């Protein structure tokens, strides 16, 4: 009981001079919680003494932890450029500064400056997408999953959407195409088999309740061996023949040809647009190299129907997203591809990557054991599944430390690496050039 009597009074405790400069309301809240827990610990015989200085420090530590931002910048040394867990595509700093000016002032988000009356928020990106892709119209929602749901809900509610069994995918976060179709109100009509689908399967599936022939990008797997699938250009032709909508959920979607012959596995948006499709949707923050968004392009009358769907208001994007996306698309229009960090990293030569790796090796040779190696990596983000690209990395060893321990030490300093063949790798494919000196500083701090 004497220990209970020695519990500090809240009003006195919070006035300690060590709390000067802190938010009094938050300090009071944390102090009350601490004292309640302290009382319970005493009653449960978990402590036998009270140190007020320790209690004060405990409150300060919790305060600092609470106000520290959870979302932090890291250095991506995994080699995976479009790393979903690390925020996918990077935003160009100049683009971000332009968007910041828009976001920190009033703007013409839904105001027509020429006509002096209400405008449409999607108009800011339509003209650019029309110039780039030749589409009739476009709309943007908050991600490609939303785009898929919105398209299906608009055109296939209580109607059939025909999809190959080999494309009924599940991607990250348990996003399953059959479940999305069910939630949207669409009726799934499966055709073909897991490994083989033919043009006749599409033709034979169409009936009076069919609204759409849908093709889905296999974002995180490939089917090898005895296989066949129907190219999208044939799906478009069959849809026209049967007077139904064709729709390609491209998943990632890229605007221009990719290096390393990756277009053989994944054609570009511009290539697909040559087939005059009804509707395409793709992500903004994958190979397009922009902000998180789901872009829908296609026939004007179909986009107009989507705009009438009440769900659009729940899925629409804000001014910052539109500003960033517009600037990104303008970079494509003006062929300023180095302004798009994802493309710049993807197109950096192996020779340049090796030069950067050797530069870091020279700087840290006396700190740890390191070796420049040529290896391979994935682009990531569900793009070009199972297609690896060449890269250069620095393998790191230190004393008798195991790779897991070194990786953890680096991670505590926000340097995210990968382990390959029981060695920690710092992969230069996903490292910005101005981050190399930061990596040197982290290695020096960790090992010295």
TrEMBL record:
<dbReference type="GO" id="GO:0004125">
    <property type="term" value="F:L-seryl-tRNA(Sec) selenium transferase activity"/>
</dbReference>
<dbReference type="Pfam" id="PF03841">
    <property type="entry name" value="SelA"/>
</dbReference>
<dbReference type="GO" id="GO:0001514">
    <property type="term" value="P:selenocysteine incorporation"/>
</dbReference>
<dbReference type="InterPro" id="IPR004534">
    <property type="entry name" value="SelA_trans"/>
</dbReference>
<keyword id="KW-0663">Pyridoxal phosphate</keyword>
<feature type="modified residue" description="N6-(pyridoxal phosphate)lysine">
    <location>
        <position position="286"/>
    </location>
</feature>
<dbReference type="InterPro" id="IPR015421">
    <property type="entry name" value="PyrdxlP-dep_Trfase_major"/>
</dbReference>
<dbReference type="GO" id="GO:0001717">
    <property type="term" value="P:conversion of seryl-tRNAsec to selenocys-tRNAsec"/>
</dbReference>
<protein>
    <recommendedName>
        <fullName>L-seryl-tRNA(Sec) selenium transferase</fullName>
        <ecNumber>2.9.1.1</ecNumber>
    </recommendedName>
</protein>
<comment type="function">
    <text>Converts seryl-tRNA(Sec) to selenocysteinyl-tRNA(Sec) required for selenoprotein biosynthesis.</text>
</comment>
<dbReference type="InterPro" id="IPR015424">
    <property type="entry name" value="PyrdxlP-dep_Trfase"/>
</dbReference>
<dbReference type="InterPro" id="IPR018319">
    <property type="entry name" value="SelA-like"/>
</dbReference>
<comment type="pathway">
    <text>Aminoacyl-tRNA biosynthesis; selenocysteinyl-tRNA(Sec) biosynthesis; selenocysteinyl-tRNA(Sec) from L-seryl-tRNA(Sec) (bacterial route): step 1/1.</text>
</comment>
<keyword id="KW-0648">Protein biosynthesis</keyword>
<dbReference type="GO" id="GO:0005737">
    <property type="term" value="C:cytoplasm"/>
</dbReference>
<keyword id="KW-0711">Selenium</keyword>
<keyword id="KW-0808">Transferase</keyword>
<keyword id="KW-0963">Cytoplasm</keyword>
<comment type="similarity">
    <text>Belongs to the SelA family.</text>
</comment>
